[in-house]
């Protein structure tokens, strides 16, 4: 027997409507579209993996450009930290490097190049935003509407993540048929510079070209990434486990990342541009 839901039986949306701001091209284009009234979002939520974890260029862009722009247009842009039970802030880098920790929450590459399972997206993004939504009235009965900045050329990423009970995910850039390549002109039309790609600086989803850029342009950050890989593998060795890597080439970063040439056919990088680490 098929039971048809009447409108009254269907979940009622709460009035809470937010946009998951990832700090990259798509969500900054969405911010511009919201500011000019083309999208109905007045609250943008950025799940901050940590001042020591998010790429510094993204945090600088938000504080210098996105946040002042949002404020000028009456849009609330909230930067949300992951909080421990005692109210202190936990960062992803802090969790990774905590002395004695066995936690490996990021998608490190195994010896065959495949990424391992990760909990970083769920713990530091989905749950952080979920906690804010629930604190502001979202529930299973009254789910919040959460806009995600997936563009038409990334349509395969839509619906890749299941909705939590307290949210209904929508993809407003798909409705407007906006492609990633459209985003820079939308962003510039508001007088904003185009943001860098957003992700943790140590994300193992970076492609080799992104690592090569970091090695050339931010050698200190590159050295810190090498040190992180070494730290993780020191721990793995103590536990009698195979090494893991930040690239898919099963060798230390400073051996596999070229010091100068940008590799052809290795465009862009992964990360959390959409705010959910769909990579
Ligand atoms: S950018 Fe990478 S490391 Fe950071 S939360 Fe997303 S998947 Fe995890």
Could you please describe the fold and organization of this structure?
The chain is α/β, with parallel strands linked by helices. The protein has a domain at 17-196: HUPs (Rossmann fold, 3-Layer(aba) Sandwich). It has helices spanning 25-35, 56-72, 92-97, 120-135, 172-175, 183-189, 208-217, 219-238, 253-256; strands at 17-20, 43-48, 76-83, 89-90, 144-148, 167-170. Helix 1 packs across helix 6 and helix 7 (208-217) crosses helix 8. The radius of gyration is 20 Å and the shape is globular. The termini are far apart. Bound molecules: iron/sulfur cluster. Iron/sulfur cluster binds at residues 49, 106-107, 118, 120-121, 124, 199-200, 203, 205, 271-272, 277.
Summed up, what is this model?
The chain is an alpha/beta fold and about 280 residues long. The chain has helices at about 25-35, 55-70, 90-95, 120-135, 170-175, 185-190, 210-215, 220-240, 255, and strands spanning about 15-20, 45-50, 75-85, 90, 145-150, 165-170. β2 (about 45-50), α2 and β3 (about 75-85) form a beta-alpha-beta unit.
